[in-house]
Input
Amino acid sequence: MEMPPLDPAILARRSDIVAALRAIVPGEGVIDDLDGMRPYECDALSAYRQMPMVVVLPETAAQVAAILRYCQDHKVKVVPRGGGTSLSGGSMPIGDGILLAMGKFNRVLEIDYANRCARVQPGVTNLGVTKAVEHEGFYYAPDPSSQIACSIGGNVAENSGGVHCLKYGLTTNNLLGIEMVLMNGEIVRLGGKHLDSGGYDLLGLMTGSEGLLGVVTEVTVRLLRKPSTARAVLLGFPTEAGAADCVAAVIASGIIPGGMEMMDKDATKCAEAYVGAGYPLDAEGLLIVELDGPPVEVDYLVERVAEIAKGRGATTIRVSHDEQERVLFWAGRKAAFPAVGQISPDYMCLDGSVPRGKLVEVLAEMRRLSKQYGLRVVNVFHAGDGNLHPLILFDANDPAELKRCEELGADILRLCVRVGGVLTGEHGVGIEKRDLMGEQFTEIDLEQQMRVKCAFDPDHLLNPGKVFPKLRRCAELGRLVVTQNNIPFPDIPRF
Amino acid sequence: MTGTIKPRDAKELRQAVEWALNDGVTLDVRGESSKLALGKPMKCDQVLDLSGISGIVDYAPEELVVTLRAGTPMREVETLLAQRNQMLAFEPPDLGPLLGREAGQGTLVGTVMGNLAGSRRLSAGAARDHLLGFSGVNGRGEAFKSGGRVMKNVTGYDLSKVVAGSWGTLAVLDEVSVKVLPAPDQTATLMLLGLDDAAAVRAMCAAMGSPHEVSGAAHLPGRTALRLEGVAPSVEARLKGLRELMAEAGAAMEELGTLESRAFWREVRDVVPLKAAADAVIWKISCPPTEGPAILARIKAQRLDAQAFYDWSGGLIWLALPPSSDADHTIVRGALGTTGGHATLIRAPETVRAAVPVFQPQSPALATLATRVKESFDPKGLFNPGRMG
Output
């Protein structure tokens, strides 16, 4: 993975930069020794590591503003970091840049049940929001698997999803407002406790911008009332196609489940060995369908889903009868990644999204690619919204195998794009999928995105080397060559 | 004299913009012109008419996605979805009659450009939440795309969000993919009678915070309406639960069945209950729900003859004021105070819209950023110049 070359002029000024940061953030908020910086050398994409030039942990928006203003004035690069759980290298440090760690922004500022929202600092964990309101029967809907550790600020940067986003949406659909600091040190507020924007929807643009446009210093999220009941249905099918058909049929019948997850036979076996959830080991495709809402609705829908599954040849149909059993059905799915970790030294987790109707085709082609590369692929995915999480098993100690794994991963993502899908459904582009952006976007598509980046950060100082395969200078991107009278008058109807 | 240019496909659209760029021609971008009277008045060199780039490209009900061309009329989309018991969940309003046009006009893309939504905004989001991706032309005459046709996608910036609600000032779209959802089998409305504004908003907020999945909460003078949707046994059970919860408010209650409910919420969606006089000025105020009554009270303290109703649990105020040369914009925006939120001048004579800010004025830092974003798409200001100004 190639990162932009280090700037020797910046590295030569390291002690000045550290001193300037100490003047802004006093005490232990600036870390410049190797041992102290070690915990920050990677995020959850741990195959790639890089020590930052210096780590700074501000505590106030004013400090963040002063840091960014200093960096803008002195052309120093900055990488923001929340919980450090990015699976795409979104918060991987750069060697000649500051790592801006937002961990001290960890307070819940306000809970407003009447307006159904919570105002929190960005370092509060995703689960921390729910924990703060669940005693009143409320929760925060997006639930990425890393929710005990990932931060709300990071969720905004990555537009995080989770198991329940088919019904309840991604971060972008559950976010009401933010305060953020621009690269020039200005502090601005977008949204609030009201809905929609009076001007351009910059809040929507910020969500999922992977820390390249601004640094979030406060977040207002929508709270939802917890559904009164939830039940899970476990469905085993003799073929993957049967399971995939069932997913399509459930949705076509007008049911939007709270969650609809699929596992292939290998993933089922691993998960069962790991947690003993009682999964049927003969099933080629296993579905977990969760229905939530008022008890009478859930009972009604459970029956309809079971009927649909029977019609598609399900050989196992089990409905959870109490909360304990529902949690058990999910336990295997939630532990699927660590379970796979038990049978292989390493695994790479992919994140392509495809139209649901292409699931069977994509699974078959993935099998073929797996054979071709001689690497096992295990599949766990959010079937309801077509978001795949193929896990490629490999040994990172073998450099040749790592390379083969990266190539297989790239081929699988190309396959997703070819069938009308996308490179990443919820993990983000980061550094991991950066060089594949050309598979999904044309040069012009990417230039338009980079121009938006230039509107926020004209010197490419914020999280550089992420998302875009090739950084182009903003002056060059902004150039407009107008050729007077050079274009033939188009043959278009005019009035 | 303004001419009209009417491309027939994406290629001709790109050529038209390229020509406009080269000749320095500004474009008034239109679908069916149903919302022409909304926004700052513009003086453009040409009308760019998108009605020739029309039609459904692909509709896959089991994928919950419809892909269509920019000029496709909303009525065509809604008819198509209804055949498969699906809908646009953001409840696109028909503002035509409010804006002096016929009902049933307008395109889906026009609704997206205004990021409009009806009562279900509360539970299902606005147009911006349902735009999965688009292709179009930027102000450099370049064809580009963003997003896709799948539900979950975080590949690159979410340009769909910033294009939705841009009133055609960033890019001219030729195709969009939009998320659709199953239409509810049944709809019921619990009507609370005789509550004042403050009590009504308290009741609506309590209902929204209940587990009964209320999908619409509007307060009209004397009537506070709570909507429940879904399969029959569920609606029935939730209606019973909601009735018990609302008994605390001490108001008399009525229920509306599915057909009556649909008609009622269609009227709320289209702002019919405002009963605005033909020459009244109309504002739309988005605010924190609990602030709604105080904001309206501040306005009414200065304009006794203001008429209004609430949607979005109190977070949306539709306001009609008697005609005036400045649409009372300082009174309306002053009433927002420090609550956050924004007020948009939805209807006023052209001279008034030319004189006062139609959209909520922004802080200098945000206004600068918005200008830079605009320039990143349309550096020469070809598209709908000044419409959001």
